[in-house]
Amino acid sequence: MFRLAILFLLSSSIVFADPGFQCGTTISDAEVTKAEKHFQANKIVSNSSAAAASPINVYFHVVAKDTTIAGGNVPDSRILSQMSVLNAAFAGTGLTFSLARITRTINATWFNNVFPENVYQTEMKRSLRQGGAADLNIYTVGLPFPLEGGFRLLGYATFPFSYNSAPQDDGIVLNVDILPGGPFLGYDRGKTLTHEVGHWVGLYHTFQGGCGGSGDMVSDTPPEASAAFQCPIGRESCFDGVVDPIHNYMDYTNDDCRTQFTPGQIARLQSQMATYRGKLVTN
Prior knowledge:
Oligomer: single chain
CATH topology of one domain: Collagenase (Catalytic Domain)
Mean pLDDT: 87
Shape: globular
Strand content: 15-25%
Helix content: 10-25%
CATH class of one domain: Alpha Beta
Distance between the termini: 32 Å
Strand order of the largest sheet: 2-1-6-7-5-3-4
Low-confidence stretches: 10-21
CATH architecture of one domain: 3-Layer(aba) Sandwich
Radius of gyration: 18 Å
Largest sheet: 7 strands, mixed
Number of helices: 6
Order of helices and strands: EEHEHEHHEEEHH
């Protein structure tokens, strides 16, 4: 389904960025074409005369299998650290995020079994989700299933244009171990949530569409044949004389490497938020 953007990491107690993230369910080029046709027909463009946007309310739902930290019941300090990372990454985009509430639910079934589009994630979201289109709900769970090749699911997000058709599904599901200070070396500084929120505000992967076509629909992110891992300085996967955007938050490089959104991405996310989430943004 095109509304999901999913990330994987090699499963281990300590995981090095080798190869790191791998994409699972992504939006196809045909689905991008459909979504972009609707976007262009309904597009609202934020402008400099608009009032500054209020912060986005964040409802952080900690779902744990028991009351221990090892069981997923992470302390407030890690959530506050994650919020700081998120706001630092989006500085200059016109978006800020305010922690509205932390909820805590002990439910081993949800913690162990939530997965994209299954009955457990539907139950969880219907029970816990708060707010409307412009409110961000984040759910931390175990996502423990080893997948083909040993990859482990890190998180997945919905896109803004999916809200009207499935409002209760809206939000981000995150592997609890990917919060700052987690065990995945190279992905332990909270940038995975930045990446997932990038999808939630309307951005595609930098490598969407590969070297041809319209790519990620942003003109100032160079085309990229495939996701980049670790931090391969000088990588030129399309052999077009332009290096890959490995420092972009919407690639799969490690946390130290990902440091930026481009002006084109900022313009896009502002318009996506105005069009689909009723959030006029200026920066």
